[in-house]
Structures are given as C-alpha cells and as structure tokens.
Please model this.
Amino acid sequence: MSELEELVQSLEDGNSEKVVELTKRLLGAGASPQTVLNNGLIVGMGVVGEKMRIGEMYLPEVLQSATAMHASLKILKPLLAKDGVEPLGRIVMGTVKGDIHDIGKNLVGILLQGAGFEIVDLGVNVTPQKFVDAIEQQAPAMLAISAMLTTTMLNMKGVIEAIGGAGHRSKVKIIVGGAPVSEKFAEEIGADGYARDAVKAVDKVKELLAIG
Amino acid sequence: MKNDRLEKALECTGTDRVPFVPAIYEHKAWFINDTPSNVSRDVDLLTKAVLTEYEVVQPDALTIGIDVYNVEAEAVGCKVTYYEGDDTSIPAISADSAVFSETTRLTSIDLPDSHRDGRMPVNLEAAKNVKRRIRDEVPVRGALSGPFSMAANLVGPEHLFMLTVTNPGFVAELLSFTSEVAIRFGGAYINEGCEVIIFDSQASPELLSPKMYRDLVLQPTRRMIEHFHALGQKHVPLIIGGNTTKILDSYIETGANNILCDFSNDVSKFLIDCAKNRRAFRRNIDPTDFLVAEPSDLHRRAVTGLEESRGYPGYILGTGVVPYGTPTENLKAIRDAAIEYNLRTTGYFL
Model:
C-alpha cells in the first residue's frame, strides 16, 4: 500500500494521529500539498461519503474522519495558499431562523469540505439579513440553506426573497435541504437545487457549479 | 366514557376502528391562539391547549408536552431559548449550553426533582389537570426524553456522537444517568394516574449505527420500560423518528409497545415483525405539506396508509409532527379516513 493509499485508509478509519503523520511524511518526501489534498483527503472523504450513503458508516464514524481531515488540512492550508491553490469554490451555509438543528448541515459541510470546497458556516438560527450580509461579505459561489422542521422550512422562502430584494439573487446559486424539504418545495420557493442527503448535496453542488 | 380503542390496538385484539393519534406538540399552542414558548411555560395555558386539542381533534391519546426533548435537559441545567411576543418558533436548547463533559463525575450529580426543577412541575401539573377533566376517556401520556436524546442535549449532539467512538464507557454511564432522570420523571406522571411516552429520535439509524444502538442504547431503554411496566403501565410507547427498519429487532427488544413506523419506513417489515411479537405500531403520514395541503388530498393519503395496514389489529394511524398552524380541517380529514375505513372493512381482516 502506498503512503497515499494509507492516508486514504487512515482517514476512513478516523485515525487523526496517523493522518497527520502521513501528511507530514508525504510532504517531507516531496509530494505537493495539492497532491496530498486531491489524492489523499478528497479521495478519502469521497470513500467516507459513499460508505455513509450505503449504510456502512454512520455519523459517529464520519465525525471521526472529519476530525482527521481537519487535522491534515491545518497543515496543508498554509502551504496550499502559498502555492496559490484555490478551493473549488466558497459555500456559505446556515440553518434558518427559528431552527437550531445543525447535525445535517454540519455533515453537508464536512463532505463539501472533503470534496475541496471552502465552507463559511453561519451556524443555526440565521436571519435572512445575516444570509444577505454573508453574500455581500463573502461573495460565495453557493448558498446552502438548511431547515429541519416543517414550520421553519417556510423561512427558506424568506431568505431567498431577502436575497432577491437586496439584488443578489443572480450572483449566487442556492441549494436547500433538511428532513422535511423536497424537490417540489425547493422549486416552489425558487431555489436552484435540492439534495436529500449530504452525499447528494456534494453531487448537486458540483452540478450547479458545473464542476466535473 | 372510557374509549378503549387504543388499548385494544395495543393488545392487537381488534378494535371498532383504527385509532388516530396525531403527533401534536407545538401545534397545541395554536389551538388557543398562543405561542409555543408561552404555552410551554404556563400550567393553565398548557392544560387549556391539551383540552382544546382533545375537543377539536378527538385523538385516541393525548401527549403532555410542547418541546418534548427539552424538559429534562433543562431541569438538569441546560439553557432553553424561549421566543417572546408573537414569535411562534419552538423553544430550543441553546447552542453551547452543554452541562456535562467527558470529565464530569456523573455519580456526584443530583437527579432533578420532578416537582421542583425546570418545567417538570408545569408539565406534571398540566397532566394532572387534564387527567382530572377527561378521566379515563383516553390515555394521557407525559412525554419523556429517551436516554440518548437527553444525553445529546446534556453534552451536545456532535460531542455525544464522537464519544460513542472515543469513550463508549462514558456514554454508557451517561445513558444510565439520563435513563434514571426519565425514570424519576416518568414515575411522577404515573403517580398522577397518567401514562408515559418516550421519545428518542437522536438514536435513529439515520444517525447512529444499528450496532451502536444495540450496544449502547438498548439496555438503558429497556431498563426504563421495565421500570414503567413494574409501576403498572402495561404498554410503553417509544417513538424513534426516521427510517428505523434497520433497528427494528432492537426496537422491539426494548419491550416498547406502540412503536413508530415513520413514513419513510418499510411498512411491510413492521407488519411482519410486529405481528410476530404482538406489538402495535403507529404509522405516520408525512406532515411536510400539512399547512397547505387540501383536506381531500390528506384524506386520500390516509386511506392509502390504511390500506397498506392490511387490517393489522395493532395498526395506529398517526402523523409526523403536526406543524404549528395546520388547519383543523386537515387533521379531521385524516381522522375521518380512519373512521370510514373501518366502517367499510369491519371484520374483514380480524
């Protein structure tokens, strides 16, 4: 097994120590930070996402893998910046006002970050104005809005209207998700896309941003 | 007059019609034109809201509680955010209000007093009032947070999920603590002549693996249910949302009766396994569009659900959590489907 394959396996195992050790070893042996990112972390988190999709991994294991990924990214990020390597795109995400559920949103964030995106997480109970402010300040390629309640999902419409009202709708793609949300609802409120789960969210974001 | 429809369904002995038990929590406040935050903190408002629900919807069981996952955690020390004025948001455990960590010596923590701490007394008093008014007409159930969901509030959900891998020993201790909290609170409800209903959706296999459910959650849950059996409650409902088909064996092993078959579940598996184990289950209708759906559409969906039941005598018609503000006609349309279905099919399957 090559060290990159070992990195992928350690990431899948959620072994932070090993992931950090392998990251350092690969860089020390001359691998570029981008190679470690693309062929190690992104491949590994892809495996994690797929295993979650087919029910071989659950939230606790995914969180372990995410911790390992973050430990490696802490080493890689300054090096990637130095090399001028850009993330695939910046995504602002948050759970709508009145809703404090964040596990699903965080899971989407983990897998998107694992796929190479930069995540700006606004947290939970986010007002429409705060989403608007984030678009102005962060200029994201995508906004990901989450709601877990049948009542709060209605606030997604308010967010999209506020973004339109501020004149930003054409500047950003919007994807929505959460347990009660459906494709039909997403269309009705004027979102660009909907994803049923975190794995599908990664595919949908790539599709909407035309990333192959 | 006593309505024993639900009891018969729980015994799987056949009823005059399928019981109707919608999941009404925050929506209770809407019946009295108030907000969930106000009603959840006031004995008189909560009593009035539950009695109005009974009068308007005529369900076959009532649940005491608005924000059913927060009450015990708040009594232990978590902070709950309430919304003021006309804001109808549901009270929620505040972010970063975890009260325990891995280093907490749980044996040194006092269990909350059900008659003194947080809103436990509000819920107990309301249960007592409702029970006094409706007597044995339908079961009055006090809502309890299940061991895993309560633990998620006490240490923070993501932290708890991480601990299931990094420190399962601590999680086991924590679930022993939380189940004891629920046992005490549940005992207080039963002392008032009420029943209990346990909610534990954080332990759903949408998040936690079936193996972890079996290794960590099953035992404390079973202990709670055995305790309530010993206190005289013959059938203890356990509600775990999401698709629980993968843990159905463990779910049944908890000893619960009136388990949940959410709308995303494989109903045929529930029919087979529940019949084998003589358990009743509540089949939910998806509540996503309750606020805007036409009553006729909901009626049709309820009939489809009832037909799926193939006349199983332990089938209970329910809904996912009813959104605040759902038109009463929509709930009545679902209930009417239960009434009409049995008029058409009495005796066919029994």
